Task: inverse folding
């Protein structure tokens, strides 16, 4: 059985995208799933957030065919592997421009991994992307089966969401017709203000795809955990943020017919 490839993407920064990638992956592994997290963001926050050293061969060297994919995977936790990013990834976008079939490079590389003897029989492959629409992001969307969209509970997030949906439509029309929207998850939700509730209501009125019922709250422990190289499951397992990600992982598995 082939793994489901899910890109975690939003063109707007500050949506908690990397937190979703790290912590959802951690809880899926807690529930017994095997996950590969590909850090495709040159800032390498998913890499450092798992306590993995950034200055080592990773996804850039894989994309540029300096190393095979299996040599760029690190087992970060039980059931969880990460393909790290490093500072070289910042130039990959420019280097790929003149290559043939440049939008399909990542898709081909992942496909080769899955048929190799080093395949770990992953259940899911997560791809954490930069907060921009560039050739690297396009590669991730072309390689994926589904897209999960973290949406920060603030006014301008809805405007950015509409732009992302237009981009997804273009990708489906021209490059990857089988790309589906898994849904949106509301992050950094502050129950003390009216704005977050208004964003939630507008999402339900206007977002044409699934909205996960689990809401990720604004939580100090969630913000602190990456600085220690830990997931929220490890850093503060009884916190509100940890409980939210526990619920999100269960909801994710139910919706993927895997729980």
Result:
């Amino acid at each position: 059985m082939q793994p489901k490839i899910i890109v975690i993407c939003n063109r707007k920064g500050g949506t908690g995208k990397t937190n979703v990638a790290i912590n959802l992956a951690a809880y899926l592994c807690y529930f017994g799933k095997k996950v590969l997290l590909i850090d495709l963001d040159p800032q390498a926050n998913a890499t450092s957030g798992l306590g993995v050293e950034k200055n080592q061969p990773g996804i850039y060297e894989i994309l540029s065919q300096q190393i095979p994919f299996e040599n760029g995977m690190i087992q970060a936790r039980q059931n969880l592997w990460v393909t790290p990013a490093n500072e070289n990834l910042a130039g990959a976008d420019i280097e790929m421009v003149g290559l043939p079939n440049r939008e399909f490079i990542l898709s081909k590389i992942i496909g080769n991994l899955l048929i190799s003897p080093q395949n770990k029989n992953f259940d899911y492959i997560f791809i954490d992307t930069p907060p921009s629409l560039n050739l690297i992001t396009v590669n991730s969307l072309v390689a994926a089966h589904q897209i999960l969209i973290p949406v920060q509970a603030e006014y301008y997030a809805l405007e950015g969401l509409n732009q992302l949906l237009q981009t997804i439509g273009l990708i489906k029309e021209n490059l990857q017709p089988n790309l589906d929207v898994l849904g949106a998850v509301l992050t950094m939700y502050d129950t003390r203000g009216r704005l977050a509730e208004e964003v939630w209501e507008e999402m339900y009125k206007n977002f044409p795809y699934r909205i996960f019922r689990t809401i990720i709250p604004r939580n100090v422990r969630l913000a602190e955990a990456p600085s220690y190289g830990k997931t929220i499951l490890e850093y503060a397992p009884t916190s509100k943020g940890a409980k939210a990600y526990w619920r999100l992982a269960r909801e994710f598995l139910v919706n993927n017919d895997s729980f």
Notes: The beta strands are 4-8, 35-39, 74-77, 80-83, 124-128, 146-152, 180-187. Residues 4-255 form a domain with the Rossmann fold fold (CATH 3.40.50.300).
